[in-house]
Amino acid sequence: MISALNIQIPTEPLDLPPPTSGEVTRGKQDIDAELANSLEKLCLEEREKALFDLHGICPNQNQDPLCQQKWLDTMKQQLGKIKHGTAYELAEKLDFSYVSDHSMLDMFLKSSDCDPYEAAEKIIYFFELKRQIFGVKKLVKDITLDDLDEEDKDYLVKGTIQILPFGDMSGRDILMLQGSRNKGQSLQSEERVTFYVGLESAKRAYHSKTSGVTVVYFGLEAPEREISRHSGLWWSIPNRIAGIHLCTENIEELVRDCYGITLFPAKSLARTRLHIGSYAQCHDSLSAYGIPSHLLPVKCADSPTISHHLEWYKQLEERSKELSMPLPLAAGYNEKDVLFGHKRNHTGNVLMRKLVEMQKEAYDVSPKAGKVKLAREIVEQIHSSGGRFLRRDEEGEWVQVSNDKARDKVAHTFRNLRRSY
């Protein structure tokens, strides 16, 4: 188990009796003590960061590219020291290019506040959980909607876990989980969906350059110890958890559902807040932290508002169809093609960088939608000139990538260009 995270994940649902009154008292005292002590364990700078995060304040933090590269190098060195016998080491043997992908490593680093040692441990833990939940065959594959079975998709469509259509005061995504809607769902299905949605949220945060995600958990009438069994999943995902808000109705449910938070590291506990009371009372309490409540559930029997969620799910289905289409063999490449891998001086790659340089200023000042539009236009320019975006498949053949992957390539080039200035 990873020492810095120190979270145990049960492999079977926990069948535990309700806590006794003595256990409730001791449990509440333990939780209060851990929350109170968490800030004391942090330095002054970390305390300030935690409080800013909780209240939706996001100071500008421009990172020095040289420091960023130094942290990445340190993280890679640490991975080399701690990887032996882990799922990460197996993934490295299966597909080295997958585990060494710059964007993935950068995502883990930023989700750990640029702490290379914590990021390395998080990567190890992530691959352990990925193997546990999806098996070895998916270890070096991106998890897509097609990797979920029908039970998983039914659970996802309900909106029990969803990324809300509004953010907190700093624009970060709000990931909502409603425990009271989970009864009858298998633990395995919940884990797969939580892992998948968490990854989608992480990608959104990384590409939009927001500083992580805020988690709001409505645990009223949830199955016993639900929070405990999801704790490790939250912290394995390469997303910076800016705040966790646990809403529950009474102290007994608090101890029953939330005792697992005492296992969180101090930096995480300092960003955790408990809200005890009815849904209306929890809404009022959440608003003090810059979290809008107009689309949150208003009573326990309610299903969450899911119209926006269903639109998001429809986009996932469309993307899944595009990704599932067989990639056309390219039968080699021509000088106009953009090649993935170590082909920076290839004519097509040089042309793409020139197109990116021409749009750099517009890209830097554009909102997220504008950035996506600029990347798409560059992809279309290259396609219209007879160029393609190609990568090698497992057989070593050049294949054409999807439009989404091509846009990611262009967006990545924009980010690299910004760091070089």
Provide a quick synopsis of the model.
The protein is an alpha/beta fold and 421 residues long. Helices cover 53% and strands 10% of the residues.
Structural commentary:
With 421 residues, this protein is α/β, with parallel strands linked by helices. Helices cover 53% and strands 10% of the residues. It has 18 helices and 8 strands. Helix 3 crosses helix 7 and helix 8 packs across helix 9 (187-208). The radius of gyration is 22 Å and the shape is globular. Residues 1-19 and 220-228 have low confidence and may be disordered.
Biggest sheet, strands in spatial order? 1-2-3-4-5
Order of helices and strands: HHHHHHHHEEHEHEHHEHHEHHHEEH
Low-confidence segments: 1-19, 220-228
Counted by DSSP, the helix tally is 18
Report the end-to-end length measured between terminal Cα atoms.
41 Å
Percentage of β-strand residues? 5-15%
How would you sum up the global shape? Answer: globular
Radius of gyration computed on alpha carbons: 22 Å
Beta-strand segment tally: 8
The largest pleated sheet is described as: 5 strands, mixed
Q: What percent of the residues sit in helical stretches (DSSP H or I)?
A: 40-55%
What is the typical, i.e. mean, pLDDT?
79
Q: Given the helix and strand composition, which structural class is it?
A: alpha/beta
